[in-house]
């Protein structure tokens, strides 16, 4: 979204891969008046450009799933570069682990300044509280989305939750995969380089707590099937999250966070209503 410089770097890295992906799709959420990314994609012959739904990252990924033809799907952001041998390594891992696995790597995150070493971001675990924590590989239940490759077959019955506009979508889709019997196949040979862009961060920030609250309630209710856990999350985890934000960012941001938390509860109630409607419709 409105980051043609980053997109150019990402596409050049993808086209330098050997082998290249079967196809490269770009779903662009830039405003209609901003044609820079569309014009850029025309310079790359192997790239298929499409106007994004402009409803957040989950919606973009869903339209890419619908438009794609590959048997394995890799969702990478425009501020990420893929090493030239990434797909060669992934094919070897897939041949060993099989198509009932989600291939799971890590990323080098370069956001500490020009002279700072990159941080290694590994798969994490989403537990009871509204945040992720470090996990042993066998304990992880959340992939690093930019370094994960999903079997297309998963998306016959799963999709990215479009109420997650930004944040937690990778933990949600991983839990969907685990819930359906897929395994996480961790491999240290799979990694990407992430250069977090400052662009659009203010817009994204308005959805982070909403996503944390909604995803936490959904995790307890739908995946753990725990009414007590759902009530406990609402009573304990949400206030803890808001208290943390108050201490870190001050009162003004805590007010914004409270609004976001209420929105997250509203998203969860919408989820409950939609599931009751499906049950009623048989």
Find the CATH topology of the largest domain.
Spore Coat Polysaccharide Biosynthesis Protein SpsA, Chain A
Helix content: 40-55%
* Proportion of beta-strand residues: 15-25%
Shape: globular
Number of domains: 2
| Uncertain stretches | none
Which SSEs are present, and which pair or pack?
Elements: H1 4-15, E1 24-28, H2 36-41, E2 47-51, H3 57-67, E3 72-74, E4 80-81, H4 86-97, E5 101-109, E6 119-121, E7 124-126, E8 132-134, E9 148-151, H5 169-179, E10 183-194, H6 201-205, H7 208-223, H8 227-249, H9 251-280
Parallel strand pairs: 1-2, 5-10
Antiparallel strand pairs: 3-9, 4-10, 5-6, 5-9, 7-8
Helix pairs in contact: 5-7, 7-8, 7-9, 8-9
Question: What would you note in describing this structure?
Answer:
- The chain is 45% helix and 17% strand.
- The chain contains nine helices and ten strands.
- It starts with a helix and ends with a helix.
- The protein has helices at 4-15, 36-41, 57-67, 86-97, 169-179, 201-205, 208-223, 227-249, 251-280; strands spanning 24-28, 47-51, 72-74, 80-81, 101-109, 119-121, 124-126, 132-134, 148-151, 183-194.
- It has 282 residues and is an alpha+beta fold.
- The mean pLDDT is 92.
- β1 (24-28), α2 (36-41) and β2 (47-51) form a beta-alpha-beta unit.
In short:
With 282 residues, the chain is an alpha+beta fold.
Features:
single chain, two-stranded parallel ribbon, six-stranded mixed beta sheet, 45% helix, Spore Coat Polysaccharide Biosynthesis Protein SpsA, Chain A, alpha+beta, 282 residues, 2 domains
């Amino acid at each position: 979204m409105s980051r043609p410089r980053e997109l150019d770097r990402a596409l050049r890295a993808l086209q330098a891969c050997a082998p290249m992906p079967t196809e490269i799709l770009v779903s662009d959420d830039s405003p209609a008046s901003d044609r820079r990314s569309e014009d850029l994609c025309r310079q790359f012959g192997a790239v298929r450009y499409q106007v994004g739904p402009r409803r957040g990252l989950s919606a973009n990924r869903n339209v890419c799933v619908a438009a794609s033809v590959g048997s394995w799907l890799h969702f990478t952001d425009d501020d990420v570069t893929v090493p030239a041998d990434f797909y060669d390594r992934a094919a070897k891992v897939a041949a060993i682990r099989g198509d009932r696995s989600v291939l799971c790597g890590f990323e080098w995150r370069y956001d500490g300044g020009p002279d700072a070493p990159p941080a290694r971001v590994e798969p994490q675990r989403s537990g009871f509280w509204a945040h992720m924590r470090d996990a042993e590989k066998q304990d992880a239940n959340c992939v690093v989305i930019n370094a994960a490759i999903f079997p297309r077959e998963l998306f016959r019955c799963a999709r990215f939750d479009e109420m997650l506009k930004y944040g937690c979508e990778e933990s949600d889709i991983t839990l969907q995969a685990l819930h359906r019997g897929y395994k996480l196949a961790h491999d240290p040979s799979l990694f990407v380089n992430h250069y977090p862009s400052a662009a659009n961060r203010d817009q994204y920030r308005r959805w982070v707590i909403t996503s944390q609250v909604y995803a936490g309630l959904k995790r307890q209710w739908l995946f753990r099937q725990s009414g007590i856990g759902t009530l406990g999350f609402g009573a304990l985890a949400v206030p803890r999250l808001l208290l943390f934000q108050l201490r870190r960012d001050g009162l003004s941001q805590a007010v914004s966070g409270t609004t976001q938390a209420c929105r997250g509860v509203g998203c969860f109630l919408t989820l409950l209503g939609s599931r009751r409607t499906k049950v009623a419709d048989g």
